[in-house]
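can u do me a favor
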């Protein structure tokens, strides 16, 4: 497991905590499910591993670029990352998502149908937010 960063925002997104992924269904209603998510601040990218046959993966794969949000909460502290989602089956991208998931949570069970949902972050909300840019 990686050491927890000094930055409160990055620490919040590194500590073991269940998240929720919210995405629109084709009828416009919201599909919200618990997920394990990792955040890569250098790439401003959230990764979620999923079974390719799951509704969330099929729904987002059918509509690349769909706007989604990933949230987590602990007591009164919360953070939401919004962005556009794509689903990839690329073995290297999935392996990287699994590696990061393992660092934050634990090693997932083997799944040959696994995909990675990648969310390009465009907005941060909440009372746990990134601080000013530092050198």
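np, heres the sequence
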């Amino acid at each position: 497991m990686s050491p927890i960063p000094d930055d409160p925002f990055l620490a919040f997104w590194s500590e073991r905590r269940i998240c929720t992924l919210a995405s629109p269904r084709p009828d416009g209603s919201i599909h919200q499910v618990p997920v394990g998510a990792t955040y890569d601040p250098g790439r401003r990218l959230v990764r979620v591993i999923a079974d390719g046959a799951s509704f969330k993966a099929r729904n987002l794969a059918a509509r690349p670029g769909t706007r989604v949000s990933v949230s987590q909460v602990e007591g009164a502290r919360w953070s939401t990352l919004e962005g556009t989602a794509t689903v990839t089956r690329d073995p290297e991208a999935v392996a990287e998502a699994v590696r990061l998931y393992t660092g934050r949570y634990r090693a997932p069970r083997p799944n040959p149908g696994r995909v990675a949902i990648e969310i390009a972050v465009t907005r941060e909300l909440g009372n746990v937010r990134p601080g000013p840019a530092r050198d």
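The first strand starts at residue 19 and ends at 24. hope that helps!!
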